[in-house]
Design goal:
The structure is a single chain. By secondary structure, the chain is α/β, with parallel strands linked by helices. The chain has one domain. It contains 13 helices and seven strands. A seven-stranded mixed sheet has the order 4-3-2-1-5-6-7, sandwiched between helices. Strand 2, helix 9 and strand 3 form a beta-alpha-beta unit. Helix 4 packs across helix 6, helix 7 packs across helix 9 and helix 10 packs across helix 11. The N terminus is likely disordered.
């Protein structure tokens, strides 16, 4: 059954998206989750479908991979050192329609989830975040503030229940900024091709994102199953045991049969962003990457860290959000990041010029972004 975006949005706005909207209500005219999962570019790169192959960025990617994977090249990189790190939102997943997926999940939790009763302080801050998202003016302070607020909103939920929550919302909530596309389908098809191309050439692909780590792990399972959970680095909440209370972990014994203890989402731990991405790559991977992919100056430290690899020829690409026809980017935004890329030797990607499609050929930009998930909120 196909349900209109307007009706699906209305149902979500009434608070039915959590635990009530059926899977048949998802719009599927974007590339479906199963279709995204089937994308698999061969080692020789002969079956790319979504790139304009005469673009400079595509040619640069192919030339680099072919060079460093050639055993006869002086730039050959052994498989053990082929580490690629990539941002997620805005790099291989939609960021601007309507705003960060993590924020939309947060708004749903605050305004529409009948199982959650936020405090007046929580509601007030969520409204400020909503206003900033609508205006496209999210400050650096608010970026981390939302991380803390969302962590608090889901604190005490079991890891399993949070995974189900993410699945249910992402699979059923349509994007307000694009037609025929749910959050579960909002992947940049050309970049999914890049991910599989790199993996098939022996690159160890890590996601290094400012989004909640557990959310990303769960969201990626179906559309990009080749990215393992242990290859996701993100913003974290500290897991705690249900019966642990205020006891430190050194004083608590997890029940040996596992029947009485559950791992729960605990308090906010840290935001994985900017130079913090480099710190976490060094801490969690322990190998300096040779490839980095990003889409903003917030990824600049990570991109430059790859380019500064002292041992191997390295490569970085930056996705410029310059497509105002098929997505919510602007030429001004794209040009600004392109200038940053050119300054630091990062290969810029033009979403508008280098890609044949973004989300799929039946996805179109809507005239306005409604932010329907909060329209029933009363000041």
């Amino acid at each position: 059954m196909k349900t209109s975006k307007k009706l699906a949005s209305a149902l979500i706005a009434l608070g039915l998206a959590f635990g009530a909207v059926g899977a048949d209500m998802a719009t599927t005219e974007a590339a479906s989750v199963s279709e995204i999962a089937q994308i698999n570019v061969k080692k020789d790169g002969s079956n790319f479908q979504y790139w304009n192959q005469d673009s400079a960025s595509f040619k640069a990617l192919k030339a680099y991979v072919e060079d460093v994977t050639n055993p006869n090249s002086p730039n050959f990189i052994p498989v053990k050192d082929r580490v690629c790190v990539s941002d997620m939102d805005g790099t291989f997943y939609g960021e601007l329609a309507p705003t960060y997926s993590e924020w939309y999940l947060y708004f749903h939790r605050m305004f529409n989830d009948p199982t959650y009763n936020p405090t007046p302080t929580e509601k007030a801050y969520a409204l400020e975040c909503l206003k900033a998202a609508k205006a496209g003016k999210i400050s650096a302070d608010m970026d981390e503030g939302e991380d803390r607020a969302q962590s608090y909103a889901f604190q005490g939920m079991s890891m399993e229940d949070f995974d189900k929550y993410v699945d249910n919302y992402f699979s059923n909530a349509p994007l307000d900024g694009l037609t025929n596309c749910t959050f579960a389908e909002a992947y940049y098809l050309p970049m999914v091709e890049v991910i599989t191309y790199l993996q098939n050439n022996g690159f160890n692909f890590y996601v290094v994102t400012g989004t909640d780590r557990q959310l990303v792990r769960q969201a990626l399972k179906a559309p990009i199953p080749s990215i393992n959970a242990d290859h996701v680095i993100g913003t974290d909440s500290l897991p705690v045991m249900e019966r642990q209370g205020w006891a430190g972990s050194q004083y608590f014994l997890f029940n040996e049969d596992g029947a009485k203890d559950k791992v729960m989402r605990g308090p906010f731990q840290f935001t994985d962003n900017k130079a913090g991405k480099v710190q976490n790559i060094a801490k969690e991977i322990g190998i300096q990457p040779v490839i980095a992919l990003g889409n903003s100056t917030s990824d600049g430290s990570m991109l430059n860290y790859a380019l500064a690899n002292p041992k191997y020829k390295s490569f970085a690409m930056g996705v410029c959000c310059d497509d105002s026809v098929r997505d919510w980017g602007t030429q001004a935004k794209g040009d600004k990041f392109k200038a940053f890329c050119e300054k630091y030797g990062i290969t810029p990607i033009s979403m508008a010029k280098d890609w044949k499609t973004i989300y799929g050929y039946n996805v179109t930009k809507t005239p306005t972004r409604d932010f329907d998930t909060a329209k029933d909120f009363k000041k």
